[in-house]
Amino acid sequence: MRTRLSRITGFLAIAGAFCCSCEETEKSILESVSIEPASLELTVGSTAVLELRAVPETYIMKGEVIWSSSDPSVVTVDEKGIASGVKEGTASVTAAVDGKEARCDITVVSEVTSFSIDPAQADMVVGDILQLKAVTVPDGIDGEVLWSSSDESVAAVSAAGEVSAVSAGNVTVTASFKDLTAECEISVSDPEPAKVGDFFYDDGTWSSDLREDKTCIGVVFYTGNPALHDESLKREHPDCVNGLVIGAFADEPNYWQSAVYDCGISVGEWIRTNVPSLMPPLTGTLEDDGLNRMVGFSNTQALIAFDADESNSGWPLEILDNFREYQENSPVPPESSSGWYIPSVKELSLLCSGEYDGNIWNMQMPDVSNLERVNASLAKISRHSPIIGTSYYWSSSEYSALEALGLDMLSGKVAYTVKDTYPWRIRCVLAF
């Protein structure tokens, strides 16, 4: 028994020694090294301690750790792994030991000594757009700027710092950059009521003086509710209660309907029979007739419905060619407006002579001062084609199956003629 026990003990001792030898061998093999952190950002003049880690963690490094920088003019590193930012740029720090290497990517930026918003205060009118700029000292430091508004119901700000004035009130716009913040105090007010001669812009705003930072698309020629008698306009654009705008861009002459004798029916009669939901553009000359109502939006809808029907393809309405061309070649009107349409004869009278309480058919000596104010503003707009009061202009109002109504801009008097007799001019308007 004693001999057998001795043998077993000896075997265990040998096995134990073998296992210890295996553990020591595993500890002596370096699988990889890494630098913590693997990447970082330094400001010029700042330092960071880099830590070299081994896998396995129990590995004892035998050789000296060699630290180096890919660009010492940007980042330097000493023998202890302390990296220092020298100037703006990027560089890699490498640590090498026992046949293994690790890398840390470093970006060096200038330290921001101040951060602000330009402008720091602004006054805006509802509908205005303002571009804010984040300013750093020194200039040109890279980094994301985060923008926010204290009340987006007053003014909203985009990710690019563009502020949109929504409603009257006060708001603070904040910009955040790294660990810095800056503020811009903004006061938003309601716009002044529109006046005849005001410039109207594609963002739905208006002003008395022409603004070069906006796209002007027309001039206000009437202030008041243009939907008083136009049910279609009231239904489709309920917010258009401020006035009317004459387009600022070129108009061309054309016939109202050149195949009028082939047609044999008025647009108004056709609408009554085929699209009774629309208001017929046909009117008489009495005070209570459509002649004295602002119904150009409804009239234009009726003309479009007539012209679109295949049964009327043999006698198209040339007046709509000009309307479509105007839509294509003029700036897109704001969504808050009605969009372009052909004015009724009442709206042409308003353009030329302003408001008149009686029957415009009976106006003997119309006042054209309203047109003069509008033309004075039109003349200031680039690429304009002002109504200068020397031509007849077609309206969307129809007088009979053969005749349509228009206005003599020289005298301000309502006129009518056969639809294919004269190529009168056509200028579109919109309600806002």
List keywords for this structure.
432 residues, alpha+beta, Immunoglobulin-like, disordered N terminus
Question: Any overview of this molecule?
Answer:
The protein is of the alpha+beta class and about 425 residues long. It has three domains: about 80 residues, Immunoglobulin-like; about 80 residues, Immunoglobulin-like (Sandwich); about 230 residues, no CATH class. Helix content is about 20%, strand content about 30%. It is built from eight helices and 28 strands. The strands form nine sheets. The protein has a five-stranded antiparallel β-sheet. Strands 2-9-8-5 form a four-stranded mixed β-sheet, with no helix packed on it. Strands 11-18-17-14 form a four-stranded mixed β-sheet, with no helix packed on it. A hairpin with a 2-residue loop joins strand 17 and strand 18. Helix 4 crosses helix 5 and helix 7 crosses helix 8. The longest helix is centred in the first third of the chain and has 26 residues. It is elongated, with a radius of gyration of 40 Å. It starts with a helix and ends with a strand.
